[in-house]
Amino acid sequence: MNARKLKLLLVDDQLTQLQYEQMLLGKEFFDFVVARNGRDAVDMALAQRPDLILLDISMPEMDGLEATRRIRAQEETSQIPIIMVTTRGEERYMEDAFDLGCNEYVTKPVKKDELLAKIRSLTAS
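User: That's the sequence. What structure does it adopt?
Assistant: Structure tokens below.
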């Protein structure tokens, strides 16, 4: 199979989580760009135009919910699929994320098969 690698924007303030997601998903299938907070995520989404964003909720400077709102508000980034990847499993966080335009929601610790299935369903063309 000689398909184009998907570009994923991974957003988390924890370096170990970013490394874990890259290891879990594999560099043979994906190109990764990373951001460590929501403010940088918004900037990187605009500059890099990733195929999909994996976004944490709890981060300094700007949380993932506000980053989602801002990404959706810009015409150039409004259609990029967003998967919230977070420890926040409470229903109110899920509702907020989906209300703001998140496409999927995954709680940590991430299960590889679940995450890959969600990525595939959002990027299938």
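The longest strand covers residues 6-11.
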